[in-house]
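## retry 2 of 3
previous attempt timed out at serialization; input unchanged, resubmitting
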Amino acid sequence: MAKRIIISDESINCYGTWISTDGMDISQFEKNPVLLWMHWRGVIIGCIKDIKKEDGRVTGEPYFDEVREESKQAKAQWEKGTLRMASANVDVLEVSDAPEHVKPGQYRATVTRSKLTEVSMVDIGGNDNALPLVLSFQGKELKLAAGEASDFLPLLNTNPNKTEKMDYKAIALKLGLPETATENDILSAIEVLLGYKTANEQLRQEKEQMQLAGITTAVETAITERRITADKKEHFVELGKKVGLESLKLTFEAMTPVQKPLDLIHPNAGQAGQGEWKKLSDVPADKLMELRTNDKPTYMRLYKAEYGVDCPNY
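## retry succeeded, writing output
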């Protein structure tokens, strides 16, 4: 029998809440039960088969189509037992802080009504059942730290008689604002700081992408110039990430391009001979065996041009 995964259950998760299985609508997901990798839209690695909602859990059987490399890897690790976790993306529709819905250890309102929108295979779990989870509201992912306020998934008021007063003066001074700053002034300053943080992260990612593109181009140029072989491409890309683009270029400049044996025997053959040969019958009879022995790629290319099929290995 195929192994099943837990898509959702009623244990307290990493958000400090729990999701009612009876209140979860899985009908839309059943129509298109795609299985993603790490919640990456477009990276479909298979689907979920035989979806069941019973005993307070939603479960299913992961099927890997092996079309993408991620799918092949996930299937192999799933069968080995090193990949065992699924992550549900759940859209919150209704919550409740009624006492009958609260469990020990819970600190956010209970999700009483929700909709399952997507399931992914992931590496690290998000609660005691190794069940990762992504909660969203109206299509926007909820990223909540412990104790962080949220209008959509509010904290439970565990001590209604206690009123906490925030020290706005200390926060304002920490943000470089006058001590008379209002709550709105503080929130505005925080929004500006968050904007700077987002912009810096985007710049960092763009810089890394540009650097990687430069390194990849340098490696591909070295392959074209016969300074390295194509099977060493990934090695030199990783080396470039460590030492930097300029150091990588200096390394390639110190390498002598490899010459083909035919180039050593007939230095001008590539210019006056091979460049003019369109098919095997164009090669002079006295050079045919030499070409076949010393320049296999050219011989195979001309063979295919002559006969319309790939040259058999020899």
